[in-house]
Amino acid sequence: MTVRVLVVDDQAVVRAGFRAILDAAEGIEVVGEAGGGPEAVTVAAHLRPDVVLMDVRMPAGDGVTATRAILDDPAATGTKVLVVSTFDLDEHVFDALRAGAGGFVLKDIEPERLVEAIRLVHAGEALLAPSITRRLIGEFVRLGPTASDHDGGSAPARDTAPGLSARERDVVAQVARGLSNAEIAAALVVAESTVKTHVSSVLTKWDLRDRVQLVVRAHELGLVGGDP
């Protein structure tokens, strides 16, 4: 399956760089570009890309508003957003994740890591590396309501994990540390398909959109695994 990507950045040279990297990758096709938020929303509605690589700081309309508009479109159920920032503690990144983005990368990311990031986000895995997960969650807590509030959901009590089995709690704890499905499978000595099933089950039980929201909810509830 080819992952169709829309590249959004206000700098043409950056868009060209990302396009060159992604066009050279097997199974990835850049289907369009946009230089600002409003244009990104229009182009995304027309092309229906699988993944939008979204800059968050753009003079011609910010990426946060564009991310929310793209993901709020009922017809864009299969579209994922991967936000891009120059700084890993950019407040705009936190806002984009609240808006439903599936993760973020830094603009100086290595080419192979960018390709991997696109594939991970397309597969529904939140791109929150362990080295930054705790800082991100700290900012979510400091800044207020979680991403689930944008979906009209209500946060559960902090001292409960409603409806989860013991194994689902184990998986959630590892997701909250920023581990991929493969890494969780290795840590818990189970099949990767089993991890995927548990993650999907938890998302359904808690009415969450994706793993980013799951990470935030897990930290709210204190369901965070210790360091390996």
Automatic annotation (TrEMBL):
Keywords in alphabetical order: DNA-binding, Phosphoprotein, Transcription, Transcription regulation
Alphabetized Gene3D superfamilies for the sequence: 3.40.50.2300
InterPro entries: CheY-like_superfamily, NreC/VraR/RcsB-like_REC, Sig_transdc_resp-reg_C-effctor, Sig_transdc_resp-reg_receiver, Tscrpt_reg_LuxR_C, WalR-like
Superkingdom of origin: Bacteria
Ranges for domain Response regulatory: 4-122
Domain HTH luxR-type: 157-222
Pfam families linked: GerE, Response_reg
Keyword DNA-binding carried by entry: yes
Keyword Thylakoid: no
Record-listed 4-aspartylphosphate modification sites: D55
Entries under SMART domains matching the protein: HTH_LUXR (SM00421), REC (SM00448)
PANTHER family (UniProt xref): TRANSCRIPTIONAL REGULATORY PROTEIN NARL-RELATED, TWO-COMPONENT RESPONSE REGULATOR
Name of the protein this chain belongs to: Response regulator transcription factor
Species in which this protein is naturally found: Actinomycetospora termitidis
